[in-house]
Amino acid sequence: MRDYKSELEKRVKFIQEVVKKADAKGIVYGNSGGKDSTLVGILCKKACENTIGVIMPCSSKQNYSQDREDALLVAKQFNIETREIDLKSIKELFVQKLEAVTSLNANAIANLAPRLRMTVLYSMAASEKCLVAGTGNRSEGYLGYFTKWGDGAYDFNPIADLTVTEIYEFLRYLMAPDRIICKAPSAGLFDGQTDEGELGISYSKVDEYLLKGIADDDTKRQIERLHACSVHKRCMPVNYEDGVV
After folding, report:
1. Does the annotation mark 99 as catalytic?
2. pTM (2 d.p.)
């Protein structure tokens, strides 16, 4: 287990240096009420007083109930400024306009919400001279389980090196609400959605492989297949002069 007292000090310093170097006035991040956004919000608030958590429900019933309640609970406990914007009608308009020119599949529709949220965060950041904090963890990053140019877009990420297992350990150290820690990981992209259900593999198995190199052959193949087919998500776009990589 990491020394989370030391981790807290180092990450707070990292955030402060990033903000200072950018001559920014604050930080904005998406407060989804989940484990990752909770940890990012706590770290950013400890590093920068002007930290704004934005709640952005978008179609899923869970967004408007448990997720919203959990986001507000965290914001209250750690004194984080909260703003809220309902993206449901905007997403519906996008779908309507897009379906006039293409046939949208479920994946395309699901990825609209993260990209709309990214647009909100960067619009706020540009208007208020803030930086956008990322909320993705190492486990998701390795598997490519994030939306390119959606939740995968940010100015800095203070938790990108932490696995899901370590995220939970850090949250316990910081005494985050138990309901955040006990809740099944979910991006809340549609009703009934869970991360592990979509991936077809548990985070405990992914983390055991990433942290200890331990996995049975089928699990290893599944993890490495997801990693290999998502390389493009973790790299800058390939240009002609770069060749095929």
Report:
1. no
2. 0.93
